[in-house]
Design brief:
The complex is a heterodimer. By secondary structure, chain A is of the alpha+beta class. Chain A contains 19 helices and 21 strands. In chain A, a hairpin with a 2-residue loop joins strand 18 and strand 19. Chain A starts with 5 loop residues before the first helix and ends with a helix. By secondary structure, chain B is α+β, with helices and mostly antiparallel strands. Chain B has one domain. Helices cover 24% and strands 29% of the residues of chain B. In chain B, a hairpin with a 2-residue loop joins strand 4 and strand 5. Chain B is globular. The termini of chain B are far apart. Classes of the chains: A alpha+beta, B alpha+beta.
């Protein structure tokens, strides 16, 4: 993976030195909170309900074992012994003290990590496919491009005060695991040297599926083209209304054709200012860092023996593995969704174990998915039984990836100052309830996504079942959407009708799923397929009764 | 059933650790909701809130929160304030942990 050079290290050291001085001036009273707030946000530091929160970028979801161990050290030394992996491939520490944050940032810099542009109206952490460089369905590794975009966008002087935040996702596969159509810019590789550029997707208050701006952009033009898109948005995007400031609204109000014309005109202006040879040289350097590991050749017999003999291993292997491009290897998803646990949370002990196992069995590679799990992208199939045994020692062997309890949930009102209702306990109760019913494996593939407010950090619009927590007259209330999909077939879910109280939402989800079990054509017909076949009506009847379903 | 009229407390977060604080007797800031000064009159509560803007070395983001009387004393009128008073629901962290360690 990418290794910082002197430029990266010096830049980060200087930023951290600046912020240390800013924190000192805030604490001695030289800066007021109004003066300090934009400075701390530029460095990923929020003030939440109970404490500060530090959001650390995990660029395109890639970590090495040393970085993971440093996150564990930070959790132990300056937080409460755990971290929360988010839907943006970041990690959040929920309890730092303001006075400790400069030391935390220095500790991050030691391993090439930072919190820059994890907040504010800037280009945020670039996200990518968590199976990058390992999936059999991939055209090429998208991460060198993502790293190039990280370098281009970090501290970009023109784009520090955009109308609103700006999120870029990159995938190298036609199978979209990076939700590219729900990003301000989504880049989908269509050939090793070309991208489809999608613009104006987003969830939040006004969810929209992105539109194609360029079908086939030569990869060599990527940076000037991105610069043209963001520059066009920077001028045209609305600054009069925060709720209409994202590029999705700019595209919606001006039309994709107008945006395309403006972008192309700007691109023609600025492209000659870029130095393609310098970009190519930098990309080549980055690509060398991302050279794939030399995969070992091993026998498949140990895997087959364990698969036959051990039902617990079999359940895990059948659920948590994904085909690797090399038949002797597998992509392992380590679930951070043990039934009843907080989705995305990992203790420092779990982080250290993952780091050790990545070194022992995974060629030193770790990924964080936007679905809040950890991935070991390259594991020899012969090592899987030993890996599974080791994962069990820290509660990391839950066999539920892609199933009901593999729930995405934002922090919600347990932590977030913006939230209107809680998310985490709803996820916990759903997982425990269906675990008690032993229905999870019978229900099969299902993506439940929960957001604690309309900003949709929990991606509820693209959940097969989406749950949105709201404040209705001072009471937590949960709206349900059905049929959402975040893949290459991106679809926004449809609202079922009135929401449900906190203590009624789990029974409501059970009614939906029992309806699905009754009406599916076979075990092979997934919830999403059944929903696409029958539509909302039977589920509305199950939720509200036949009369209301007709009237609604 | 009659609804008790709302009263107000002044609340914010401590500068260094971000912990929830409330305005208490004599202009002090307390980390215990039970010690918060309760104002029946909103105008008086706003008058107490205003000077906190100058105490930015101690406290951040101050505002008025509604409370209502119960048999056990005042409690937050809104669930958000109840969470701020207690801590998160997934771990015994924050004020609920402090309360438990004080009781032990």
């Amino acid at each position: 993976m990418y290794v910082y050079d002197d430029f990266d290290r010096d830049f980060l050291a200087e930023r951290n030195r600046q912020f240390r001085a800013q924190v000192a001036r805030r604490i001695d009273g030289s800066l007021t909170e109004d003066e300090f707030r934009p400075l701390r946000l530029m460095n990923g530091l929020y003030l939440q309900l109970h404490a500060y929160m530090l959001r650390v970028a995990i660029p395109y979801g890639t970590l090495n074992p040393g970085q993971m161990r440093q996150l564990a050290l930070i959790a132990d030394r300056w937080d409460k012994g755990y971290g929360h992996f988010t839907t943006r491939q970041n990690i959040q520490f929920n309890w730092p003290k303001l006075s400790d944050v400069p030391d935390m940032l220095d500790a991050l810099a030691e391993v090439g990590l930072h919190a820059i542009q994890t907040s504010g109206n800037t280009i945020r952490n670039v996200t990518s496919d968590h199976f990058a460089a390992a999936a059999a369905d991939e055209i090429a590794d998208p991460r060198p491009w993502a790293e190039l975009i990280r370098q281009w966008s970090t501290d970009h002087p023109e784009f520090q005060f955009l109308p609103r935040k700006f999120k870029v996702a990159v995938t190298g596969s036609p199978i979209d695991r990076a939700v590219t159509r729900a990003h301000d810019i989504g880049l989908r590789m269509v050939a090793p040297d070309a991208f489809e550029v999608i613009v104006g997707g987003g969830l939040g208050r006004t969810p929209m599926i992105g539109k194609v701006l360029r079908e086939n952009l030569p990869a060599a033009d990527l940076l000037p083209y991105l610069e043209a898109v963001v520059a066009t948005y920077n001028l045209l995007g609305r600054r009069d209304n925060k709720f209409k400031a994202r590029i999705k609204i700019t595209v919606h109000e001006n039309g994709i054709d107008t945006i395309r014309d403006l972008v192309e005109a700007r691109f023609a202006e600025i492209a000659p200012l870029f130095d393609p040879a310098a970009t190519a040289a930098q990309l080549a350097r980055i690509q060398r860092d991302f050279a794939p590991p030399a995969l070992r050749v091993t026998s498949d017999l140990p895997f087959q023996a364990a698969h036959q003999a051990d039902p617990v291993f079999r359940a895990w292997a059948d659920t948590n593995l994904h085909p690797h491009r090399d038949a002797g290897h597998a992509i392992v998803t380590i679930s951070l969704k043990a039934h009843g646990a907080t989705p995305g949370d990992a203790t420092s002990d779990q982080m250290r174990l993952i780091a050790d196992l990545a070194e022992k069995y995974g060629y030193g590679e770790i990924r964080i998915s936007h679905e809040q799990n950890v991935i070991l992208p390259h594991v020899a199939r012969a090592d899987l039984p030993a890996l599974h045994k080791a994962l069990k020692t820290q509660g990391l062997a839950t066999a539920n990836v892609g199933l009901l309890s593999d729930i995405i949930a934002c922090p919600g009102m347990d932590y977030c100052a913006l939230a209107t209702a809680r998310s985490i306990p709803v996820a916990q109760e759903l997982a425990q309830h269906f675990e008690a019913l032993k229905l999870e494996h019978d229900i099969g593939p299902l993506k439940i996504k929960i957001s604690g407010c309309i900003n949709a950090c929990g991606h509820h619009h693209v959940g097969h079942i989406g749950i949105l927590g709201l404040d209705r007259a001072g009471v937590e209330n949960y709206q349900i959407t059905l049929g959402g999909d975040g893949t290459e077939d991106a679809t926004l879910g449809e609202r079922t009708g009135p929401g449900f109280a906190y203590d009624r939402i789990v029974p409501a989800i059970e009614r939906i799923l029992r309806t699905y079990l009754d009406l599916r054509l076979s075990r092979e017909e997934t919830f999403l397929e059944a929903y696409r076949r029958v539509g909302l009506t039977p589920f509305k009847e199950a939720l509200y009764g036949a009369d209301q379903a007709d009237a609604a | 059933m009659s609804v008790a009229p709302l009263s107000y407390v002044v609340t914010g977060n401590a500068l260094i650790d971000g912990d929830v604080v409330w305005l208490a007797e004599g202009g002090s800031l307390t980390r215990h909701f039970a010690q918060a000064l309760v104002f029946a009159d909103k105008a008086l509560a706003e008058a107490a809130l205003a000077p906190l803007a100058k105490r930015h070395l101690e406290v951040v983001g101050c505002y008025l929160a509604e409370v209502r009387p119960t048999a056990q004393g005042y409690e937050p009128a809104h669930f958000r304030e109840a969470f701020r008073m207690r801590g998160p629901s997934n771990y015994a962290h924050g004020k609920q942990a402090d309360a438990a360690s004080n009781a032990a």
